[in-house]
Design brief:
The complex is a heterodimer of chains A (252) and B (386). By secondary structure, chain A is of the alpha/beta class. Chain A has a single domain, classed as P-loop containing nucleotide triphosphate hydrolases (Rossmann fold, 3-Layer(aba) Sandwich), CATH 3.40.50.300. Chain A is built from 10 helices and 10 strands. In chain A, the strands form 2 sheets. Chain A has a 6-stranded mixed beta sheet with strand order 6-7-8-3-9-10, sandwiched between helices. In chain A, strands 2-1-4-5 form a 4-stranded antiparallel beta sheet, with helices on one face. In chain A, α3 runs parallel beside α6. Chain B contains 14 helices and no strands. In chain B, α3 runs parallel beside α5 and α11 crosses α12. The longest helix of chain B has 27 residues. Chain B is globular. Chain B starts with a helix and ends in a 27-residue tail after the last helix. Classes of the chains: A alpha/beta (252), B mainly alpha (386). The interface between A and B is large, with 46 and 31 residues.
C-alpha cells in the first residue's frame, strides 16, 4: 500500500533521531499522578508496543501524545518538533493519526463517509481515491460494506474501520489504543495481521495493548508500564522470554 | 452532463420562478393561498437552516426565530428606506433587482454576526444548557424590539447621538422599529413588498441546493462526524471549535435570509411584528426539522411545507365553508357550536408528533434523503462483542 504522507519529505530525520520522543512525561488526574515521568521513543519504521495491566498508564500516555489530555510536565517531540501545545486536530496535518480506544467510529455515517472524513485534510481527490483503494485492499470487509452505516458493523469491523479511517490521512505515525478491546479472537488476529501490513508499508506504529502475547508477537520493541512508570523495556522477543513478564502477563 | 447537473437544475428553477412571478397571480386568484405558497417556501429556508444546527451539528437550538426576526427587521428597515429613496410608488419587479439582493445580503450579514455571538457559548455548553442560551437570545430580540418606548418625540438617531451618547442613540433607533405595533416603514405607510414569487422561489431553490451540497461536502461530513464523536473527529483533524461556531453562523445566515424574504413577501403583511417571531415560531421551526427527519435536507423541505400548510390552512379554514358547516345550524338545531380551529391545530400537531414518535422516532426520513435506501441490516456473520 502507498503511504506517501504529504509531509514525508519534511520528515527526513538525521540518522539516529527518533520519530517520536517522550521525555519525563507527567500527567495527573485531579490530585492523582497517573504518569510519574515516562520516557520513551519510537524510531522511524518501528512497531513499538506498550503493555501493562489496567491502570498502569498506557492509555494515559497515548492520550497525552495525541494531545487529548493536559500535560503536567515533560516534553513530547515529533520529528524533532515539540508538540506539547499542538491541538489534536493539528497533529493529523503533522503526520500523527490516532485510533481512539473503543472503536470510536461515526455510527450514523456510512462506511464510505467514515473513511472520507479520515482524508479530511487531503484536498486532492485522486490521491484520496487511491488511498481509499489501499484501505479497502487492506480490509476487504470494509469494501463489501461501503454503503452501510458504521454503527451496523460488528465490533471487529468497526475496529477495522477506525484503523482504515486513520490510514486515510496517510500518517507517518499511527497511534493505536487497545485495538483488541472487546473483539472476537479470530478478528483480533486479522487486525494484527493488518497492522503488520501497515508497518511493512513503512508506517511507524505505537500500539497500546492489554493482550500482551499478541502485542509482543507483533512488535519489535516494547515498554512495560507499571503504576505510571516504565518498569521494563527492550526487544519484544526478549521480553516475551522474560520470567517476570511471563509470570505477570502471560500466565506463566 | 453530470458535471453540470446542478447548474442546469438551478437555471431551470430560475426560469420557472420567473414564469411563476407572472403566472402565479393568474393561476391562483386567492391572495391568501398565494401567501401560503410563498410562506411555505420561506419556511423551507427556515427549516433548512435550523437543520444545520439541530440536524447536522447535533446541537439543539430552540431560538431560531431570533435570527429570522433580525433578518426580517433588517430587510424591512432597508427596503422601506430604499423604496422611499427610489421615489415610492409601486414595488416593481425591475426595482426588486436592486432592493431584494441588497436587503437579503444585509439580513444575512446581521444574522451572521449574531450567529457568531450565539455560537460562541456552544463551545462550552452542550444539550439543554445551550438550548437555553438560544432561547434566551430569541427572547431578548423579541422583547428588546417589542418593549421599546415608541413615540419618544421626533428625535432622530443623529440628534440622540449628540445629546445622549451611543446608548441613547441605540434606544432611539430601536424605538423607531415600532415596538409592539410592528414596523411599517420609515413613514409608517406599510412596507414595500418587493419579493414576488421569483425571488421567494429562486432563493428557496438556492437554499436547497446549498444545503444539499453542504451536507455531502467535506465540510458537512466533518460536521456530522463531530456530532457523532468529538474525540474521534479531532483525531482525523476536524477542529471542533471552528466547526461549531461556523455551523451557527451558517444557520443564522439562512434564518436571516428567510426573515428578509418574509418581511418583503408579496401578498404578505405590510408590517413586521415582534410577536411573529415568538417562541411558537422557534418551536414550529423545530417541528419542521423533526417531522422531516433531523439531518435530512429533503426532510427539512417536507417538514417546512407540511408545518406551514397545517398552521396556515387551519387558520384559513376558520373562514371557509367547512367551518361554516361545522358552526352553522345543523342537527342540534338551535345549539350554537363554536369551533376554534386554531386550537385544533395543536391537536393535529400533537397527533402527528405522537404518531411519528411511535412509528418513526427519527422523523419521516431519519437522516436519509428522499430516494436513498435505508441502511443495510446488521450482518450476522459475527456476533457483536461489547
Amino acid at each position: 500500500m502507498r503511504v506517501d504522507h504529504p509531509t514525508r519529505g519534511k520528515l527526513e530525520l538525521p540518522a539516529g533521531q527518533p520519530l517520536l520522543e517522550v521525555k519525563s512525561l507527567q500527567v495527573s488526574y485531579g490530585g492523582i499522578r497517573a504518569l510519574k515521568g515516562v520516557d520513551l521513543h519510537v524510531m522511524p519504521g518501528e512497531v513499538v508496543a506498550m503493555i501493562g495491566s489496567n491502570g498502569a498508564g498506557k492509555t494515559t500516555t497515548l492520550k497525552s501524545i495525541a494531545r487529548l489530555l493536559p500535560i503536567g510536565a515533560g516534553e513530547i517531540t515529533f520529528a524533532g518538533k515539540r508538540i506539547n501545545d499542538t491541538a489534536t486536530a493539528d497533529l493529523v496535518a503533522a503526520g500523527i493519526s490516532l485510533v481512539p480506544e473503543g472503536r470510536a467510529i461515526f455510527p450514523n455515517l456510512t462506511v464510505r463517509e467514515n473513511l472520507e472524513v479520515g482524508a479530511y485534510l487531503h484536498r486532492d481527490r485522486k490521491a484520496m481515491r487511491e488511498t481509499l483503494e489501499d484501505v479497502v485492499a487492506l480490509f476487504p470487509r470494509l469494501g463489501e460494506r461501503m454503503t452501510q452505516e458504521g454503527g451496523t458493523l460488528s465490533g471487529g469491523e468497526q475496529q477495522m474501520l477506525a484503523i482504515g479511517r486513520a490510514m486515510m490521512a496517510r500518517p507517518a505515525l499511527l497511534l493505536l489504543d487497545e485495538p483488541s478491546l472487546g473483539i472476537a479472537p479470530k478478528l483480533v488476529m486479522q487486525i494484527f495481521e493488518s497492522i503488520k501490513k501497515i508497518a511493512n508499508a513503512g508506517v511507524t506504529i505505537l500500539v497500546v495493548e492489554q493482550n500482551t502475547r499478541i502485542a509482543l508477537a507483533s512488535s519489535q520493541r516494547a515498554y512495560v508500564l507499571k503504576t505510571g512508570e516504565i518498569a521494563m523495556e527492550g526487544p519484544s522477543a526478549e521480553l516475551a522470554q522474560n520470567e517476570e513478564i511471563r509470570a505477570a502477563y502471560l500466565g506463566g | 452532463m453530470h458535471k453540470y447537473r446542478t447548474a442546469i437544475f438551478v437555471a431551470g428553477a430560475l426560469v420557472v420562478a420567473m414564469a411563476l412571478d407572472w403566472a402565479l397571480p393568474v393561476l391562483v386568484t386567492d391572495g391568501s393561498v398565494r401567501q401560503l405558497v410563498m410562506l411555505a417556501a420561506c419556511n423551507v429556508v427556515v427549516a433548512l437552516s435550523l437543520n444545520v444546527i439541530n440536524g447536522m451539528a447535533g446541537q439543539f437550538s430552540i431560538g431560531h426565530a431570533g435570527f429570522v426576526s433580525l433578518g426580517a427587521y433588517t430587510s424591512a428597515v432597508l427596503s422601506g428606506n430604499m423604496h422611499k429613496w427610489l421615489g415610492g410608488g409601486d414595488a416593481t419587479l425591475a426595482r426588486s433587482f436592486i432592493v431584494v439582493p441588497a436587503c437579503l445580503l444585509a439580513s444575512a450579514a446581521v444574522a451572521a454576526l449574531f450567529g457568531f455571538i450565539v455560537g460562541l457559548p456552544s463551545l462550552r455548553l452542550k444539550g439543554d444548557y445551550l438550548a437555553i442560551v438560544t432561547l434566551g437570545f430569541a427572547e431578548i430580540v423579541r422583547l428588546v424590539i417589542g418593549t421599546a418606548q415608541v413615540g419618544s418625540g421626533g428625535e432622530t438617531i443623529g440628534q440622540a447621538m449628540s445629546s445622549g451618547g451611543a446608548l441613547h442613540a441605540l434606544s432611539v433607533a430601536v424605538s423607531k422599529l415600532g415596538g409592539q405595533n410592528g414596523y411599517m416603514g420609515p413613514d409608517g405607510q406599510g412596507l414595500p413588498l418587493y419579493a414576488g414569487p421569483f425571488w421567494v422561489l429562486s432563493v428557496t431553490t438556492l437554499a436547497c441546493v446549498a444545503a444539499w451540497r453542504l451536507k455531502f461536502s467535506g465540510w458537512g461530513r466533518a460536521l456530522r462526524a463531530l456530532r457523532e464523536d468529538e474525540i474521534a473527529a479531532a483525531a482525523v483533524g476536524v477542529d471542533p471549535t471552528r466547526y461549531k461556531v461556523t455551523s451557527f453562523v451558517i444557520a443564522a445566515i439562512g434564518g436571516g435570509v428567510a426573515g428578509g424574504l418574509i418581511a418583503q413577501m408579496r401578498d404578505g403583511s405590510y408590517l413586521v411584528n415582534p410577536e411573529t417571531f415568538n417562541f411558537q415560531a422557534s418551536f414550529d421551526a423545530i417541528t419542521m426539522v423533526i417531522i422531516g427527519g433531523s439531518g435530512s435536507v429533503s426532510g427539512a423541505i417536507i417538514g417546512g411545507i407540511f408545518v406551514t400548510v397545517t398552521v396556515k390552512a387551519i387558520e384559513q379554514l376558520q373562514n371557509t365553508s367547512v367551518a361554516q358547516l361545522i358552526r352553522g345550524p345543523h342537527m342540534l338545531g338551535t345549539f350554537e357550536l363554536t369551533v376554534d380551529l386554531n386550537a385544533l391545530r395543536m391537536i393535529i400537531y400533537s397527533v402527528v408528533l405522537i404518531a411519528l414518535m411511535i412509528r418513526r422516532p427519527e422523523g419521516m426520513l431519519g437522516e436519509r434523503e428522499l430516494g436513498q435506501k435505508r441502511p443495510g441490516p446488521r450482518p450476522k456473520s459475527e456476533p457483536a462483542v461489547t
